[in-house]
Amino acid sequence: QQQVKQSPQSLIVQKGGISIINCAYENTAFDYFPWYQQFPGKGPALLIAIRPDVSEKKEGRFTISFNKSAKQFSLHIMDSQPGDSATYFCAASNPGNTPLVFGKGTRLSVIA
Amino acid sequence: GAVVSQHPSWVICKSGTSVKIECRSLDFQATTMFWYRQFPKQSLMLMATSNEGSKATYEQGVEKDKFLINHASLTLSTLTVTSAHPEDSSFYICSARDQGGAIPEAFFGQGTRLTVV
Fold first, then answer.
1. Which of A8, A89, B19, B105 qualifies as a FRET site for A57, CA 20 to 30 Å off?
2. Rounded to whole angstroms, how far apart are CA atoms B106 and B83?
3. B43 in contact with A at a CB cutoff of 8 Å?
4. Does B74 touch chain A (CB under 8 A)?
5. CA A96, A102, A103, A109 torsion: positive or negative?
6. Best residue in A9, A64, A94, A97 for a mutation probing chain B (most B CBs within 10 Å)
7. Does A47 touch chain B (CB under 8 A)?
8. How confident is the model at residue A2 (pLDDT cuts 50, 70, 90)?
9. Which residues pair with B110 in a beta bridge?
10. B111: left (phi > 0), else alpha (psi -120 to 50), else beta?
């Protein structure tokens, strides 16, 4: 049972544009929602994370928007660059020292 | 951010042999570490939860006798793939959460590409 649904599966964005990736979850006990960037052959790198008591968090060009009532959260990448081309995963976890549940990933290609 | 180091980055072994993968938390103590497996173009799937000083907890469908996990210290967990076969070829990634901050961020190792020939 997939507990975090991610869309789209792939995304092509023009350089300088905004990349938007969406995730939805079912488990209302989740209290931690991170986004990871993964390049081929590398482990996931933490980009940004949010807790459910905050509706938005911004770090540089990356912004998480969180809608608790809709059980949805999204990643916005502003001024997308070719170097942002990678696979992005959303994830969620229960409270405490618990493992992450991952979405299926979005392959982002930023073209010049 | 906190660092999780994984070694080796890649390994090729013959069918029937065993391979050990190490995962270290470099600047924080990790009472719990997590092992994931990732097939090409797929997401990460949790294999097991490694607990310092006690037995690991395996996810349904993961053979505990094939994937031996040892978590002997607060900074080191190892995954040993025993009697490896070509179907065990995959990308293995460990993770640990830094409990020291306000938010227990989850960090990942660099991953280990295992190829069984």
1. A8
2. 31
3. yes
4. no
5. positive
6. A97
7. no
8. low
9. none
10. left
Q: What is the mean pLDDT of residues B56-74?
A: 94
Q: Report d(CA A2, CA B28) in Å as an integer.
A: 31
Is residue A91's pLDDT more than 90?
yes
- Structure-token pair, residue A105: 């990933």
Over residues B15-44, the pLDDT tens digits come to 999 999 999 999 888 889 999 999 999 999
Give the CA count within 13 Å in the CB-facing half-sphere of A73.
29
Tokens of A34: 């991170």
Could you identify the residue written with the tokens 């979405």? A103
As a three-state string, the secondary structure of A2-23 is CCEEEECCEEEEECCCCEEEEE
Residue-wise pLDDT tens digits, A12-27: 999 999 999 999 999 9
- Compute the Cα dihedral for A68, A69, A75, A79 and give only its sign: negative
- Residue B88's φ and ψ, nearest 5 degrees, are -85, -10
Residue B86: HSE in the Cβ half-sphere, 13 Å Cα cutoff: 1
